[in-house]
Amino acid sequence: MRSQQTPAASLEARLAARVAGLLTSHAERLPHDVSERLRFAREQALGRARHARLQTSSGAVVIANGGRAATLAAHPMGWLQAASALPLLVLVGGLVFIDQWVSSEQVQSAAEIDAQLLADDLPPAAYTDPGFAEYLRNAPGP
Amino acid sequence: MATDKELSDFLKSIEKRAFKRAVYAVRNDDAALDIVQDAMIRLSEKYADRPAAELPLVFQRILSNATMDWFRREKVRSAIVTNLSEFDKSGGDEEFDLLETLHALEDTMGTESAADAVSRAQILQRIDAEVAELPARQREAFLLRYWEEFDVAETATVMGCSQGSVKTHCSRAVHALAKALRSKGITP
User: Fold this and answer.
1) What distances in angstroms separate CA A133 from CA A136, B36, B87, B125, one per listed residue?
2) Residues of chain A found within 8 Å of residue B7, distances taken between Cβ atoms
3) How many CA atoms, within 13 angstroms, populate the side-chain half-sphere of residue B107?
4) Residue of A4, A6, A38, A55 to mutate, interface with B, max B Cβ within 10 Å
5) How do residues B13-41 score in pLDDT, each as one tens digit?
6) Are B33 and A41 in contact (CB under 8 A)?
């Protein structure tokens, strides 16, 4: 009798909604470990979404700038990479400076020796003369 | 495009129902958790740029696909195909009173006394078990239509069938549940 008074479809929908409500109540009582694993799964998924968005936006910026170095201005990761290379650049620059300084010191000292030899009263050729060498060996001390 | 908060709120709102749907299908909590996680990650990686309003429909399709993938991996595809093709032959057996069952359920949703708490928990457990016992297609149609609150067209889209089939599955599921609950003594 009652089902004749209420359209069958409406009655089905009401019963179904009631069962669904009870299912929701039951689902809210999930064990703690299941809830925790669901939370972990959600956080993992959100992390992936952020990563995917970051990749998409980075790609868009590179395309927008035609792949030129100007992308650094709109690309936060570019600045980080540039900053991480700075210590290496300083090290290489320091090594090049030290090499140049040592070379110039060696050239300077060689030039001073040459200058002293050339400016001395004794001509440089005297050091290759055997008689002069003999004279130096037999000369009385000061 | 859905914002981080919209995506987070959405996932939070559906995670428990998604888990229960997966459990009904695979009957294994660990496998169901893996399926839900897989579905969440697929949604986040490939569809996070969709508007927030589209996420429910997309997620349910992904969840269905992830569940099917699990069955494929488990090499029990033949079993699920048998399940999916079965139809409940309930014709001519719909004379029992849906309204009586509805009144009984409404009583369980009413003001809860402390003395009835255990009884209510048992009723929830029975309803959960009866839903799990429904044929797969009927259960899927019922859950999408009434638990996820999709309309008939959306349910048909997710299930990949006609709207008429959705209505048939839903009707049979409701009658089967009402009959099963009455047989378990849930009567006024």
Assistant:
1) 5, 100, 123, 118
2) 46, 49
3) 12
4) A38
5) 999 999 999 999 999 999 999 999 999 99
6) yes
Secondary structure, 3-state, chain A: CHHHHCCHHHHHHHHHHHHHHHHHHHHCCCCHHHHHHHHHHHHHHHHHHHHHHHHHHHHHHHHHCCCCCCHHHHCHHHHHHHHHHHHHHHHHHHHHHHHHHHHHHHHHHHHHHHHHHHHCCCCHHHHHCHHHHHHHHHCCCC
Residue from the list B40, B100, B174 with its beta carbon closest to the beta carbon of A16: B174
Query: What residue has token string 């459990």?
Result: B23
Chain B closest-CA separation from residue A46 CA (Å):
6
Amino acid letter at A46? L
Q: List the end-to-end C-alpha distance of chain A, in Å, as a whole number.
A: 146
The hierarchical CATH code for the domain B98-183 is 1.10.10.10
Q: What is the nearest CA distance from A44 to chain B, expressed in angstroms?
A: 7
Separation between Cα atoms, residue A80 and residue B5, nearest integer Å: 27
Mapping DSSP to helix (H, G, I), strand (E, B) and coil, where does residue B49 land?
coil
Locate the domains of chain B by residue range. 4-85, 98-183
Cβ proximity of B127 and A23 under 8 Å: yes
Give the Cα separation of A15 and A82 in Å (integer).
Answer: 65
A38/B36 Cβ within 8 A: yes
Q: Chain A within 8 Å of B174 (Cβ-Cβ)?
A: yes
Interchain proximity B109–A48, CB inside 8 Å = no
pLDDT tens track for A13-48: 888 888 898 888 888 888 999 999 999 999 999 998
